Automatic annotation (TrEMBL):
SUPFAM superfamilies (alphabetical): Winged helix' DNA-binding domain (SSF46785)
MF annotations from Gene Ontology: sequence-specific DNA binding
The organism's place on the tree of life at top rank: Bacteria
Organism lineage string: Bacteria, Bacillati, Actinomycetota, Actinomycetes, Micrococcales
Keywords annotated in UniProt: DNA-binding, Transcription, Transcription regulation
Classification via InterPro entries: ArsR-like_HTH, AsnC-type_HTH_dom, Tscrpt_reg_AsnC-like, WH-like_DNA-bd_sf, WH_DNA-bd_sf
PANTHER family, alphabetized: LEUCINE-RESPONSIVE REGULATORY PROTEIN (PTHR30154), TRANSCRIPTIONAL REGULATOR AZLB (PTHR30154:SF34)
Stretches for region Disordered: 99-122
Pfam families: HTH_24
Keyword hit for DNA repair: no
Provenance organism: Microbacterium natoriense
GO annotations of cellular component type: cytosol
Name the UniProt record assigns to this protein: DNA-binding Lrp family transcriptional regulator
């Protein structure tokens, strides 16, 4: 992919959005001294060119009662479809499993999160 040609305004947009991805277009335009329509056009162009790929949020697992998070990497000695399916089924059945992580073969392997007990121990 060719390097994107960015001017000073594009770089300032990226700097602001990097610090605050939830800023409104109106606030962003005001900070940059641009018309709202111009600002929206520039952000849209940065997205279309692939410079801005996405925006994300980070959820505090502890605030939801999940203070412990485990990401598990498993390497199987025997990669038959039957063995992989058995492992996948076993992992999916884990109580309080919160999310899956995409892996090879289009399967979603689970990511386990465990709620702490009343004493705070996981």
């Amino acid at each position: 992919m060719a390097k994107a040609q960015l001017d000073e305004v594009d770089l300032e947009i990226l700097a602001i959005l990097t610090r605050d991805a939830e800023i409104t277009n109106k606030s962003l335009a005001h900070r940059l001294g641009l018309a709202e329509s111009t600002c929206a056009h520039r952000v849209r162009a940065l997205r279309e060119r692939g410079v801005i790929r996405d925006t994300r949020i980070r959820v505090d697992g502890a605030a939801l009662g999940f203070p412990l998070q485990a990401i598990i990497k498993v390497r199987l000695a025997n990669h038959t479809g039957e063995k992989v399916t058995a492992l996948f089924d076993a992992l999916v059945s884990i109580p309080r499993r919160a999310a899956g992580v995409p892996r090879r073969g289009g399967r979603r392997l689970p990511r386990a999160r465990r709620r702490a007990g009343r004493d705070g121990a996981a």
